[in-house]
Structures are given as C-alpha cells and as structure tokens.
Amino acid sequence: MLDFFEMKGVPFTREILIEQLYSSSSYNEATARLEYAAENRQFCLLTGEAGMGKSTAVRSLVQKLDRTKYRYLYLCDSELTPKLFYREVLQNFGIHPAFRSTEAKRQYQSLMLDIYENERKTPVIVIDEAHHFSEPMLQELRFILNFKEDSMSPLTLIVVGQPSLRNQLKVKHLEAIDQRIQMRYQVTGLTEQETKAYIKHQLIVVETPYEIFSEEAIQAIHNFSQGIPRKINTLCSQSLLDAFLQGNKVVGESHIHRVINEL
C-alpha cells in the first residue's frame, strides 16, 4: 500500500515523533500550560475526551524537561490506590517502600523534599486515567501535595483524565482538592480547517507527492470524528486501505462512508 500511494512511511500512526506532530491551537495551549505548571511547581488538571491528545501533550512535556532541573514519573493505573501510589513513587525513585502505609507516606515526603532542597530539582509526577479513581484516591491528592504544614509544595503534580473528572471534583466533600488546582485545561477537538491541515501534515511527513484525500472526504472525516485525532487517524488509515483495495489513488467520500459503516 505504501508503494501504491508513494509513501515513505506509515501515516496516521501514534508512533510519530514529537517533532513531527501537528500543532493545533488546543494542543499548543495544553503543552504551554503543562510547561508553566512544571516550572512553577503547580497542581495541574488536564482533561479531554479519549483520543483527544492528552497523552501526546504529556509526552511533549517530558521531551522538553531539562533533566538537570527535573525528575519525572508517569503513572497510568485506573485502579491506583494511595498505598500503590506511594509504593510506585518510592520504587521508581530508587527507595524501598516501608510496609506500613504511614511510614511509606513519610518516606515519600522526605524524598520529595530531598530532591527539591538538596538535589535542586523539581519532581514532576503525572497521574493518568484519574477519572477512574476511587474516592479515597481522589481524597489522597490533598495529602500528596501537603508539605511543611501545607505551606509549600516541592513538586509538580499533573492529573490527567476525561471530562467527567471535573464534575467528580466539584462535589462538596472534594471541594478542598478542587480548590488546590492551580492550572486546569480541557483539550478540545480540531476545527474543520485544522482537520484538513492535520491530514495534509501527516501526508507531508511520509513525503507523499500528491493530494490523496478529496475535499468531500475530509469534510466527512471531520463530521464523523468531531475533530478527535485518534478517530481521524482510524478513519484515514482504514479509508486508505479501502481505496488501495479498489485501486483508487484518491480517497473519496464513498470510501469514508464505507469505513464509517464498518466502524
């Protein structure tokens, strides 16, 4: 198929290099906010629908972090508990966690302060899939950030999840956590013009010498995907295959509708 469309690589894949990503307005704002949160040791909430590019924005942040100034940890566990959180942090930073939860929490606090005050680095902890968290885990976010009688924070905490997480944190008994959020941003989908630019960009990356998707096809892709990059990738990949199997060099609206019906 790559030879048929004269491509020098596979387009519409999640394995694209950070430097080759298409930068939409929402993506640019998300990465800028994450960088600011990291620089200022803030509690940041990043939300967005599945496939919207939240993890990609986090990946971009990681690549930009100066290793002489930051120590980074990414946790993605929908069943994360307070006990597991402290264990994971300690183990990933090279410390054997104590068996008792209270002692492990003290180890965690000592570790974060040591990295910040003695190593002169900022710990950056990203917790993904937070919309699945139990209430005890959400409550624990307050204590994860509590240092020196709650007078300072030596770390950046970035919590990532779907939009429902925002509503979860609005309930009365979680108000104390919601009030602590210093930076929040919801990633939005691509506009129709951005969807067109995104598809064109993906084809430029693989050095395709000509336009493959018709205007009608692009409009159909945008309407169905609502500008969600993961859905755009799926539609484009499947419609390219459909066009190839039919011997068509151009992906038209009919190919998109066939793929949509299969999905």
TrEMBL record:
Q: Which organism is it from?
A: Anaerobacillus isosaccharinicus
Q: Name one GO molecular function term.
A: ATP hydrolysis activity
| Pfam families in the cross-refs | AAA_22
Q: Which residues form the AAA+ ATPase domain?
A: 40-188
SUPFAM superfamilies (alphabetical): P-loop containing nucleoside triphosphate hydrolases
Q: What is this protein called?
A: AAA family ATPase
